Automatic annotation (TrEMBL):
Protein name (database record): Glutathione S-transferase Ure2-like protein
Source taxon at top rank: Eukaryota
Keywords carried by this UniProt record: Transferase
Family affiliation: Belongs to the GST superfamily.
SUPFAM superfamilies (UniProt xref): GST C-terminal domain-like, Thioredoxin-like
Organism: Aspergillus nomiae NRRL (strain ATCC 15546 / NRRL 13137 / CBS 260.88 / M93)
Record domain GST N-terminal: where: 2-83
Gene3D superfamilies xref list: 1.20.1050.10, Glutaredoxin
GO molecular function, one term: transferase activity
GST C-terminal domain sequence ranges: 89-219
Keyword Ribonucleoprotein attached: no
């Protein structure tokens, strides 16, 4: 099998979400970092007209894809043959899809805005920072309310949706409102995050991201 090419960035959590799934499925892949300046122009814009990361090229299927959720679903449909990370049961299959959509629409955008207004925005806007910090607490609370009664988000095993929350959730304690009390206020989500952090795939990808951040210049 030829390596899947993953276009990524050290700081962007979404490409690392795809990397975790690739690791879990033991798929060969090659990471190519693209600067935030270069995603809006050629040659990358030809891969993703939206000019965002990630994107993949899979030479084994002759396909190029963008949007992390679509990429994750593609990898599962084509390579999770034994359903290690997914279900065949009708209800569970669509429940996992619901959680994936929540991650993409509820977690990622709000956490991303929290990071931007805390770290990159030229003007410090306290009300905006508070709004998005509160959203981190709200989303973490949703996770906590479900994990209070079960070990995983869907069914009786770790699935792709548990893993897809990880790259953004690792920054929750940095940008949430009242961040120092986040784990205490949401202990079930904290325990779930800690358990997932010990998975070999997550440990490797988080270490790879940390290394990429340390080495990044001009990205």
């Amino acid at each position: 099998m030829q390596p899947i090419i993953l276009y990524s960035h050290p700081y962007g959590p979404n490409p690392w979400k795809v990397a975790i799934i690739l690791e879990e499925l033991n798929l060969p892949y090659e990471t190519r970092f693209v600067s935030f300046q270069d995603v809006k122009k050629g040659p990358f814009i030809k891969l993703n007209p939206n000019g965002r990361l990630p994107a993949i090229e899979d030479p084994n299927k002759d396909i190029t894809l963008w949007e992390s959720g679509a990429i994750v679903e593609y990898l599962l449909d084509n390579y999770d043959i034994e359903h290690k990370l997914s279900y065949t049961d009708f209800a569970a299959k669509y429940e996992t899809k619901a959680w994936l959509h929540f991650q993409m629409s509820g977690q990622g955008p709000y956490y991303g805005q929290a990071g931007w207004f805390n770290r990159a925005h030229p003007e410090r806007l306290s009300s905006v920072i508070e709004r998005y910090g509160n959203e981190i607490r709200r989303v973490t609370g949703v996770l906590d309310s479900v994990l209070k009664n079960r070990e995983w988000l869907v069914g009786d095993k770790c699935t792709y949706v548990d893993l897809c929350f990880m790259p953004w959730q690792r920054w929750a304690s940095k940008y949430a409102t009242d961040a120092e009390n986040l784990d205490k206020d949401f202990p079930h989500a904290a325990a779930w995050f800690k358990k997932l952090s010990e998975r070999p795939s997550v440990k490797k990808v988080f270490a790879d991201q940390d290394h990429a951040i340390e080495e990044s210049t001009g990205l």
